Amino acid sequence: MTLSRVAMVGAVVAGVVVGAPLAAAQPVPVEPALPPLPVQIPPVPQPVLPPIPGAAPSTTAAPTTTATPSTPAVAVAPATSVAVAPATSAATTTTSAASTTVAPAAACTSWKVSTVADGFGVLENLAFDGRGAMLLSESPAFGDGAIRTLTPAGTKGTLVSDVASPGGITVRGGRVLFTTGDNVMAGLYNGTNGTVESVGLDGGDRTTVARGLTMPNGLAALPDGDLLVTQALGDRPGLTRIPATDPSEPERVRTDIGSANGLFVSPDGSTVYVGNTFDKSTELRALDAANLTGDVTTVTLPGPGPANAGDDLTVGSDGSVYMALNGAGKVVRVDPATGNTCEIATGLPLTSSVRFGAGAGWDPASLYTTGFDGSVHRLTPPAS
Asked: What pLDDT, on a 0 to 100 scale, did the predictor assign at position 103?
């Protein structure tokens, strides 16, 4: 189906906020009936189309446990631009058996927000190529999407065009990996047209790494070369591993972590962090990268899950996790050891992704964000 940009944003505001824009011009086969959703979404009349194959069967994982706390330090850099008012609150660390409220978060000083660029189509994710360019997954109002580039000076370009509903992006060596088929309709109807693609930074050669995925959203690489993707909607939302030795055989490793969306591997490669979107509460889950089906540590963030609409996330050098709340228009900082959380920036409508700067011209102490409104912002931490 083809939607105007206004209609797309309207659908998001109405409750379809998942960290994946609606398909722009890509028909998706559907099942005869809608599967149940994690949250209430306003019903939309759909045409009856031929049935399609469902997603792969899932593997049930072990119960969750709480990790041993540690307290990270917070890196800061000089502030610039206009301040955004913060708010502070306490989070809840949960296990499968009980919930324990931890100590309230310390006062959180607001980060400074400035606009880097705007005028893009719907932006889903970002990464840095390490050579001075920011990479953006863009879905315009009409036609296929693209992996766009942006320089620190604001010059826009295109790395690869003709990308159907691009999602997560990650860079390995001289190649950029990104997902396709990351749209709401594919998730709702369990479409299996999603892929992971690879394109060279030097020659621009493009190859398909994996096929048959349902709404692949977040994308991350493990130290052993395996890839992970998240799925937020459908019969079996969760986490899928794509083995480096045989990427043609993706394996669903968890279906017990809710409407999985944001995904990031810690800098030391030991922990996989997963956020959610459509559940009753917004949760950050920490998985052992060496045992993805093992115990899970869960931190529950303040506020109702559907209103927050958790989206992409990243990890700082201090161990803190930074998560975009798409629906709430905020970026929050979470201590995964203690469960303490605070808002570092507000007033950022439809924020979909966050990453620390990398490469020439991009401040490594600042967070950069993308939004469904086509904007890119910089969040600069307060001066020490």
From this structure: 34
Q: Which two tokens stand for residue 70?
A: 């540690």
Query: Per-domain residue ranges for the chain?
Result: 81-115+258-352, 117-255
Task: Encode 335-355: b = buried (16+ Cβ within 10 Å), e = exposed.
Answer: bbbbbbbbbbbbebbbbbbbb
Q: How is residue 48 written in tokens?
A: 């009856």
Q: Give the residue among 161, 159, 198 at the shortest CA–CA distance from 177.
A: 198
- How many residues are recorded in the chain? 384
Condensed to tens digits (0 to 9), the pLDDT of residues 38-63 reads 434 344 344 333 343 343 333 333 33
Closest CA to 282 of 264, 261, 308, 260: 308
Which residues lie closer than 8 Å to 36 by C-beta, 6 or more apart?
none
* pLDDT tens-digit series, residues 92-132: 433 333 333 343 444 589 999 999 999 999 999 999 999 99
More confident residue, 306 or 80: 306
CB atoms within 10 A of CB 384: 8
The CATH number of domain 117-255 is 3.90.1150.10: no
Amino acid sitting at position 225 = G
- Tell me whether the CATH fold assigned to 81-115+258-352 matches the one assigned to 117-255: no
The architecture (CATH level 2) of 81-115+258-352 comes to Beta Barrel (2.40)
For the chain, helix, strand, coil in percent to 5 are 5, 40, 55
The predicted model scores a pTM of 0.76
Beta bridge partners of 195: 180
Closest CA to 114 of 361, 326, 368: 368
